[in-house]
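Possible race condition, two jobs.
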Amino acid sequence: LKLLDEPALQDGSEFRNLMNDSHHGNADDIKFTDVVKNNSNCCKVQRLVESAHEEYERWMRKDRLAQDTIKPKTPDSSSIIKFELPVYENLAAVTSDSNLSDINEKTDTLSADILGDYAVYVVNSDSL
């Protein structure tokens, strides 16, 4: 919007007339003093054009990212993970000869339900 509102680019401005003369093949009619007189406008408009170009590039990258963030399809019901595991608060008393079923301090159960609507994927190849 800054680029479109720039006074140097409005109809009838000296800078715009200079650019039009240059663009439409009348460059031979342009004097060095005309360019020097509009030097600050040249620099300002160049910065605005570069800024607009950078903004456009960011916008293009943003659009591409939107395609990459599409939600994957739900896995087949046959591949849904189901498990229930006891959670023991204190395993310090367990030795290599002990069996986990000997521990009576079961405090909670960890099940696949905790995953809710999340999917778990196993990557079997290099992922980098």
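Job #2 (started ~2 s after job #1):
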Amino acid sequence: MNKRVSRDSSVNGTRRPGFASAAAVLLSWGVLTFAVGCDQQSSSSSPNVQPAASTSTAQTSPAVSTNAADQASSPTGTHPATGTQAPSATPTPVPNPVTGTTPPQPGTAPPTATPPAATPAQIANGPKIVFEVESHDFGKLISDEKVNFAFKFRNEGKAPLVISNVQSSCGCTAAKPSKPQFEPGESGEIQVTYDPKGRSGVQAKDITVVCNDPSRPSFSLKITADVWPLIKVMPPSLSFGNIKAGDRPQLRLTVTSLDKDVQVKDVLFKGRGLAFKVVDSPIPSADPNYPGQKIVEISLTDEVPTGQFNQKFDVVTLARSNPSSEPVETYHNIQMYGMISGDIEVTPTYMSAGAVVINQDFSTEVTLTSKSGQAFNLIGEPKIIDIVTLQREQVKVTAEPFEADGKKGWKVVLSGNPGSFNGPFTGTIEVETDLPKEKYVHFTFHGLVQIAPGQFPGGNVKTITPTTQQSLSNVNPANTQPPATQPGEKAPQ
């Protein structure tokens, strides 16, 4: 950034700052005004010069002295006569008397000029892309069927047409031109493939085309569809709310399909405490468009853990999109929630590691006590049955006897080191007891790994510059949550 530098002058022995500096600035403005005037005259004589060029000339910072004596007497120093601090040397922008524009503050980038519009001659002599249609409706689609459509066009211009980019608005749509360049009079097409898997209802997608047609260098093609899922499993998640240990509520999932002969092939579950039963629906489907219907009953077993219940399972279905097609196997992931209160009390109800620093150790703990005061033991070590984002080898969990305020129980400690990971983590811990009616207890843990002030990912403490701070702000936690089950795993009987 240029700084205005002033020279002190002496009158009757009194030093008066800024006199020569002011004269230098006024003189520089005169030279600048003259230069701008000449530039505008030369610009007006050339039809190809955009008005923005003269504006950027007018916004040039005023000239400053580079004389060594001027620089030696910086106005930001202390006044030699009064001992006071001189005012800032930042100049105040003054409107240019010729153009009427005001230069930006020092250090401020000038505004970006708007790209010029195509001239009538460029449009008349350039390429011209003309489509037969620029939108297409696939109508009713079943969610497991991919569909294709070709947007056909012709180059009706006088120069070669070049398609430089074709970009769809989502990953469900793929689009590609038949080739990149088309001569005048030549035809081509943009082939579009749409995959409606996992979607439902009316869908609208855009395909953006970038080409060298001067009249429309960028435009969008549109596709629409009304997607019908082959199978619907409702509700998508289940909750049995807050119950007491020993309660046995029963929940239901309804599987409906466009195929009246839909089958529930399996239910995959790798946790404990749930039992599943598939039955034919005694009531026909209420939706005539979905004649096939099955019911999956879910019940709790004696092994269901107390505490916070948060588990998932997969319903595996088989159905045909039409009578002549092969059956399609589909996995539907269902989340199940609840809270089961027993005699064992977890305090606090979950583990919170709070804010954890990269590459630094952390620990958090809970206590397990009996509300009724009965003694109990833990069988084996506590287990981490679920963990998200952190690796299992980065944490460990231990238990030891606990006694305080006349209460006896167990203290469970979670400790670890996140390494260079940056972001949130969570998981579930299971302990096994010798109580016959409360054999398993579950509770969750969570924390947030952050970068300490002055710390880079990896643990090194250094000064963070604005550039590195911007790069750190782009770090996102990875979503590495594993699937609930894998094909071939059977639910426990």
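The two ends are 76 Å apart (CA to CA).
Logs attached separately.
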